[in-house]
Amino acid sequence: MKKIILILTLFSLSFAQNVKVESINEIQTGDEHFYFAKFNPNGEEIVFSKDGYKGLYSYNIEKKSITKLNDYDGAGYEPTFSKDGETVFFRTDNFVGGRRFSTLISQNIEKKSEQIILKNQRNLLPPKLSQNEKINFMLNDDLKSVQQNSLKKGLAISNSNDIFVHIYNTKISLTQNGKTQILDPIGNGNYIWPQLSPDGKKILFTDVNSGTYISNLNGDILVKLGKANSPKWSPDGNWISYMIDKDDGHRITDSEIFIVSSDGKNKFQLTNTNNQIEMYPSWSPDSQKLVYHNALGNIFIMNLKITK
């Protein structure tokens, strides 16, 4: 376990009566570079990975320490947690003859002990925690689940009737009650970053040509947000975080972080820097913090004060 220094940078810009950036904490990691950070459900740990989603590392906020969990290829791509935050679930990738084979693994964060749920599967999507606290994953167009309590007794995989969204051939695939439908909300869209709202009634998604939208489960557009890359619902469903980035065709040259109310009416820019490229914000469970990385691989925790 490696001790790190937490540097507090005061940053008290106020944008309106209901949104204030109170501070930004930079997690100093020496020569290490990390990306794609994410809070666990109790807000006590943050996981992140190396460049290219290589490996998983856990940062304990109270102890201010980093623990290396594993070094698997692809483990940092959309990991998810058990409801209690003690276990992280992730997909690893192995390429053989140009074909990807994926393994689904659960790992206890404190003990670092692992369990293989499925091994060397084709067409396995990253797992997600459902509203009824099951770990869901899509395998060969079938929605499966692992009950969390079954992990202590041996793995029990079953079909799931939960709601699950993902991208299939550039369109939005929505599975619920064992049935799948393909949604194309704007017509001839090319979609990325689909995400269910916390109440399971709406879908947040981005069309690569026209921007980010919110629809209902039938694909009817409810809100158009404009350019908003890597959008994420806040756990309370009231806000959406995102980045607005620019590139030169080869690399990202600029990026700032924003939030917008879920009705699209109130938008706030949270960063505005000349020497930083801030990217991929993700919410804390209390919807009062964001964690993100910059282009150099530094991780930041932004503390917000959001009031009505």
Listing every helix as H and every strand as E from the N terminus to the C terminus, the arrangement reads EEEEEEEEEEEEEEEEEEEEEEEEEEEEEE
Low-pLDDT regions:
1-16
For the sheet with most strands, the description reads: 6 strands, antiparallel
Structural class: mainly beta
Number of helices: 0
CATH fold call: Neuraminidase
How large, in whole angstroms, is the Cα Rg? 19 Å
How much of the residues is beta strand, in percent? Answer: over 45%
Indicate the mean pLDDT.
91
From the coordinates shown, what is the CATH architecture? 6 Propeller
Could you tell me the number of beta strands?
30
**What would CATH call the class?**
Mainly Beta
Instruction: Give the count of structural domains.
Output: 1
Descriptive report:
The protein is mainly β. It has one domain: Neuraminidase. The chain contains no helices and 30 strands. It has strands at residues 2-3, 5-10, 14-16, 19-28, 35-39, 45-50, 54-60, 65-70, 80-81, 87-96, 99-108, 114-121, 128-129, 134-139, 142-147, 157-159, 164-168, 171-176, 179-183, 191-196, 202-207, 211-216, 221-226, 229-233, 239-247, 252-261, 267-269, 278-283, 289-294, 299-306. The strands form seven sheets. Strands 2, 3, 4, 28, 29 and 30 form a six-stranded antiparallel β-sheet that branches. A five-stranded antiparallel β-sheet has the order 1-8-7-6-5, with no helix packed on it. Strand 11 and strand 12 form a beta hairpin. The radius of gyration is 19 Å and the shape is globular. Residues 1-16 have low confidence and may be disordered.
